[in-house]
Specification:
With about 325 residues, the chain is α/β, with parallel strands linked by helices. The protein has two domains: about 200 residues, Rossmann fold; about 100 residues, UDP-galactose 4-epimerase, domain 1 (Alpha-Beta Complex). It has twelve helices and twelve strands. It has a seven-stranded parallel β-sheet, sandwiched between helices. Helix 5 links the parallel strand 5 and strand 6. The structure holds nicotinamide-adenine-dinucleotide and thymidine-5'-diphosphate. Thymidine-5'-diphosphate binds next to helix 6 and strand 8.
């Protein structure tokens, strides 16, 4: 029986990962540790509440006592917990340093004390920075440009140091931009889908030609699983969807899928420090037998359908959450 501590399991990718593991393995026990920040939602795991192989613990990864307590009961850690939104990090960076750096440190210390067998740290392609031609390999230097990506890079480097210095059995994944069910409606795809449903303008930053490589969340989950089972200890693996597109392309696809007019697109002021293009080389993870299964068109259609069917889920956030409204007051002024 594999006992896994999944931090940040009530968030977007974490909740999809917990579901993926429980669906694919009989002999797995999962403890979710989540602080339920504005981005965390226990409802994301509602369908799993009655599964005896899953337990939810409400707590913070920066809380040493809590982390030590849980770490003594598991053999594996998968660390998703993080502050994750670039625009929020530009507005207010403190929590990013606290969770993404200090929180990672607390988890590493406890993992060392309790001698866990695998510590998988979830990172992002954003730590490499922007690249106009070619694609980043895992060995390329980190040149993060936002407070978000630099706090993630800080976490990655700490993880590396615990392998080199203490022999902690670590692994790192750096994935490209995820999309799919349960993504908080502040990120490009769910924000634009839900705005379009309501005929509200879609605020497209700058010239709309920034490029992201989109991966359907389930493909990232299978990639994380592959690294957990077959990855070489101490190594980092890029996980990319192989779907590089300009933001304007994604925006128009969303409008087409919903049958909405292009006139909803509203060009707004660019994001400060906006990375032009993310691109990663995924040959290393393909060598351990992983590849993405979802084609971008199918993944986008499945995602649009999910937001159409689960209107109550996102309306609760967009219409009831004070944290959401407070942030959008700031964004609205920034975008003018
Ligand atoms: P998310 O914002 O949807 O969820 C983050 C979760 O972490 C939430 O449930 C939140 O409550 C929890 N959390 C935050 N601070 C915490 C703390 N101090 N203690 C415990 N829990 C805390 O994020 P996501 O999009 O699911 O991203 C998950 C991970 O994947 C992050 O580490 C992120 O950097 C990485 N990542 C995300 C993407 C993407 O496109 N979403 C791409 C690459 C990497
Ligand atoms: P986002 O989903 O915030 O992910 P990241 O910045 O981490 O890649 O943004 C994806 C792209 O979409 C990015 O180039 C910024 C752009 N974007 C907009 O044009 N408008 C928006 O309202 C948002 C949230 C993002």
């Amino acid at each position: 029986m594999q006992k896994i501590l999944v931090t940040g399991g009530a968030g977007f990718i974490g909740s999809n990962f917990v579901r993926y593991m429980l669906n694919n393995y009989e002999n797995v026990h999962i403890i979710v540790l989540d602080a339920l920040t504005y981005a965390g939602n226990r409802e994301n795991l509602n369908d799993l509440e009655s599964d005896p192989r899953y337990i939810f613990y409400h707590g913070d990864i920066t809380d040493r006592k809590v982390v030590n307590n849980l770490m003594s009961n598991v053999d594996t850690v998968v660390n998703f917990a993080a502050e994750t939104h670039v625009d929020r990090s530009i507005h207010k960076a403190g929590e990013f340093i606290n969770t993404d750096v200090k929180g990672t440190f607390e988890l590493l210390e406890a993992a060392k004390t309790y001698k866990v067998e695998r510590f998988l740290h979830i990172s992002t392609d954003e730590v490499y920075g922007s690249i106009l031609d070619g694609s980043f390999k895992e060995t390329d230097p980190l040149e993060p440009n936002s407070p978000y990506s630099s706090s993630k890079a800080g976490g990655d480097l700490l993880v590396r140091s615990y392998f080199v210095t203490y022999g902690l059995p670590v692994l790192i994944t750096r994935s490209s931009n995820n999309y799919g069910p349960y993504q908080y409606p502040e990120k490009l795809i769910p924000l634009f889908i839900t705005n379009a449903i309501d005929d509200i303008p879609l605020p497209l930053y700058g010239d709309g030609k920034n490029i992201r490589d989109w991966i359907y969340v389930e493909d990232n989950c299978s990639g994380i699983d592959a690294v957990l089972q077959k990855g070489e200890i101490g190594q980092t693996y890029n996980i990319g969807g192989g779907n590089e597109r300009e933001n304007i392309y994604i925006t128009e696809k969303i409008l087409d899928l919903l049958g909405k007019p292009r006139s909803l697109i509203k060009p707004v002021k660019d994001r400060p420090g906006h990375d032009r293009r993310y691109s990663i080389d995924t040959s290393k993870i393909r060598e351990i037998g992983w590849k993405p299964e979802y084609d971008l068109q199918d993944g986008l259609k499945a995602t649009v359908d999910w937001y159409v069917k689960n209107e109550a889920w996102w309306r609760q956030i967009k219409e009831k959450s004070e944290a959401y409204k407070a942030f959008y007051d700031v964004q609205y002024n920034n975008n003018k």
